[in-house]
Amino acid sequence: MKAAKPLPPYLVRRYQGWKATTYSENSTWYKHLANEGQHPRAMVISCCDSRVHVTSIFGADTGEFFIHRNIANLVPGYEPDGAQHGTSAAVEYAVTALKVAHLIVLGHSSCGGVAGCMAMCSGHAPELLEKSSFVGRWMDILKPGYEKVKDEPDPETRQRMLEKEAVLTSLNNLMDFPFVREAVEAQSLSLHGLWTEIGAGALEYYDPAKGGFYPV
Amino acid sequence: MKAAKPLPPYLVRRYQGWKATTYSENSTWYKHLANEGQHPRAMVISCCDSRVHVTSIFGADTGEFFIHRNIANLVPGYEPDGAQHGTSAAVEYAVTALKVAHLIVLGHSSCGGVAGCMAMCSGHAPELLEKSSFVGRWMDILKPGYEKVKDEPDPETRQRMLEKEAVLTSLNNLMDFPFVREAVEAQSLSLHGLWTEIGAGALEYYDPAKGGFYPV
Amino acid sequence: MKAAKPLPPYLVRRYQGWKATTYSENSTWYKHLANEGQHPRAMVISCCDSRVHVTSIFGADTGEFFIHRNIANLVPGYEPDGAQHGTSAAVEYAVTALKVAHLIVLGHSSCGGVAGCMAMCSGHAPELLEKSSFVGRWMDILKPGYEKVKDEPDPETRQRMLEKEAVLTSLNNLMDFPFVREAVEAQSLSLHGLWTEIGAGALEYYDPAKGGFYPV
Amino acid sequence: MKAAKPLPPYLVRRYQGWKATTYSENSTWYKHLANEGQHPRAMVISCCDSRVHVTSIFGADTGEFFIHRNIANLVPGYEPDGAQHGTSAAVEYAVTALKVAHLIVLGHSSCGGVAGCMAMCSGHAPELLEKSSFVGRWMDILKPGYEKVKDEPDPETRQRMLEKEAVLTSLNNLMDFPFVREAVEAQSLSLHGLWTEIGAGALEYYDPAKGGFYPV
Predict the structure, then answer these.
(1) CA distance to partner chain B, nearest, from residue D189 (Å)
(2) Rounded average pLDDT over B154-171
(3) What is the mean pLDDT of chain B?
(4) Alpha-carbon span A64 to D87, nearest angstrom
(5) Which of A39, A167, B137, D159 shows the smallest number of beta carbons within 10 Å?
(6) What is the pLDDT of residue B126?
(7) Mean pLDDT of C199-206
(8) 8-state DSSP, B157
């Protein structure tokens, strides 16, 4: 590994500032976390998007959430085929090893991955159709969701509908994982679908009784 | 999707507190992020572990880092085979669409995924060898790293060595992605390898000249 | 332009040192800034004083803050009269072209411009009253502020009060610029008033609810 | 002043980190600066652009440079008309009160103000011609410079030529200020013209003997 560079100086200074303040004032808690291991109450699956920080929205401290972040907060289908499935591995670890009580899928507005899926499915992004497009192939997970929303004429509304379909697709796929289904049926795990609007700071949850997303 | 539950009340209350305080006092920034889009400076690949919050260590606010989190902060090999590769999709999006300037891989102490890899490779976790084990198959990425450290007699030292091998494996695999290599060679992207010790709040970086990890 | 001289050797050497180290190690970021343009989150208006480095206090790197510096961090009144207003031009560019989310006015202790204003207004600096005094005419902006603090008997306290009035005068004047007012009312821009004490490294912010400056 | 908001939390945390590290380790220097006043060796006039930090390029610490920053690092003509001239006030203070030894004008690549001037002068930005455009009226200072470069066919070359004309215009205008000319003639002040290329980290200075800019 010849290519690695030292950390940019501004991050070194900021780290040293954190070490001298936040870490220093809370070192007992960090030592506790190191010695006793993690016992997170929930797993969150959210997007890599830099604008979505679930720990901020929920005032969560170090140790509270086990967090997997990928493009468009998607969970693929259950495929125990021996191939490398990073999202499935994270879910398996959270549910079977950490035994989290909650599994939260958090979608968001202005999602670039969802916008890419929409462009791809409507014929406006041929490059995403290529076999070598990792983003395109990843967004294939949401293709069935696109079929449900494609007739909505307003593009902004369609984008939001598809962002929420991404959350529902993930929740549905999760229920196909035997260890998830068993934990849910044993009432040792509950699933939650959320969608946040970045600009307004709004948060909606999926209500299966009403079949839609509503403000929390 | 019948199984979804409303958000636990403690999270609803915390969200409402955030909305009334942090969001309310900084709504201009959230609106700016929604209207102007994200321009993160760096992508960070870190572990799902609840004890590792890169935004805290670096005093980073919403919008600064594009963050992918998976088990043991691993990047798999470059496989443009048309299958779903979530990590590869996140890297592709960050490098080709967002054009981030830095790609940081952050490993950490007491990593459960790395411990699992060690147990599996040394014959103490047969369940991880099963084809259906998502964690096991994911940790296969680190098998070559295990070969390099397996002769270290002290188990704690061996674990740390393997945690650092996870960072190096990811950095090496990243360089096999054509769009990463091209951006690195064009000096529009730099790679960085880090490892943090949770209890001591320490941070080390990989120095290719010395061939090891050193305090920042 | 006959008068220009080459750079003093000590600055040449330091530049070459920077080029060989900081620039070289972070060239990807500089190239990124050059290719992708600037997206600063905030504009800062601070004093030319060599002792006040806002980037240092806030651990800010290249690219984070759009910075205007003038004597005593003053914003003049809104005067769209076709004359050359450098401060107003900087504010206009930051708010309408760059669409910054924050506009921070940073005052400081031991401000020479503020001391000059005090001397001028109290009759101890007749040279500053002359039409040709650029510093005097510039400090006229703060004359109404002097009226508010002139009865304070302790000179040191009076100086600090006037330094803080300089911040408030600038904030008030900013709200008279239509594009600032509109952005503030649309919640796409927030204003912040700060004052720093150089020797103690202290930082205070203006709290409109309490009507004064308080430690951050 | 009702509109002021508290500082965003990320800046509060970073300030506290600076206070606990950089300030704490150098408090004697900050106290010295507060007690003994500033004695900067040079004044720098540079652009507000977030990508141009002269203290970084020259490894300058707190107290070294008296810095005025405005759009496109321009010095207007000498006009002792009793109106508010912020740039002229800063120059007057640096030369007559602080008696700096060097006055450095630093231009840079990709300057948005210069690009605006080019667009305005070539008829592509009618909004900048309006009387109420502060940026437009400020960039009027550079109109004579545009006349000198307008026949260059390549737009990128033309932009760079005009960026350098901005530096020369400022140096020429400075020499019209009596206190600047006197100090230069008394050899107690030297003027310097610089231009930096952001992406390459290059630095050029104006050589009056050769009549052009050359690498330092």
Answers:
(1) 40
(2) 98
(3) 96
(4) 53
(5) A39
(6) 97
(7) 97
(8) H
Size of interface A-C (CB pairs under 8 A): 17
Cα angle for residues B155, B160, B165 (degrees, 5° grid): 120
Contact present, D203 and C20 (Cβ < 8 Å): no
Quickly state the pLDDT bin for B1 (edges 50, 70, 90): confident
pLDDT recorded at residue B2: 85
The answer to whether the Cβ–Cβ distance between B25 and D8 falls below 8 Å is yes
Reply yes or no on whether the pLDDT at B190 is more than 80.
yes
Q: What average pLDDT does chain D have?
A: 96
B46 pLDDT above the threshold of 90: yes
Asked if C1 contacts D171 with a C-beta cutoff of 8 angstroms, the reply is: yes
* d(C-alpha A153, C-alpha D138), whole Å: 46
CA closest to A199 among chain C residues: C188
State residue B93's pLDDT score. 98
Record the tokens describing residue C196, joined without a space. Answer: 């720093």
Q: What is the 3-state secondary structure (H, E, C) of B67-119?
A: EEEEHHHCCCCCCCCCCCCHHHHHHHHHHHHCCCCEEEEEEECCCHHHHHHHH
Q: Which DSSP category does D186 fall into?
A: T
Average pLDDT, integer, range C106-121: 98
Closest CA in chain B for residue C63: B41
Q: Is C209 helix (H, G, I), strand (E, B) or coil?
A: coil
pLDDT of residue C1: 78
Q: What is the DSSP string of B126-155?
A: GGGGSTT-HHHHHHGGGHHHHHHHTT---H
pLDDT tens digits, D2-31: 889 999 999 999 999 999 999 999 999 999
Angle (CA) C145 C150 C151, round 5°: 135
Given a cut of 70, the residues of chain A with pLDDT beneath it are none
Distance from CA of B32 to the nearest CA of A (A): 7
Exposed, middle or buried: residue D156 (CB in 10 Å: 0-12, 13-18, 19+)?
Answer: exposed
Domain ranges (residues) in chain B: 1-37, 39-215
- Considering the domain D38-215, what is its CATH architecture? 3-Layer(aba) Sandwich (3.40)
**CATH classification code of B39-215:** 3.40.1050.10
Is a pLDDT exceeding 90 seen at residue C2? Answer: no
Q: How far is CA C14 from CA A25, B123, C156, in A?
A: 37, 57, 38
Q: Over the Cα atoms of chain B, what is R_g?
A: 19
DSSP assignment string, A124-173:
S-GGGGSTT-HHHHHHGGGHHHHHHHTT---HHHHHHHHHHHHHHHHHHH
Instruction: Return the SS3 of A20.
Output: helix
D62–chain A Cβ distance below 8 A for any pair: no
Distance (Å) from the C-alpha of residue B61 to the closest C-alpha of chain D? 6
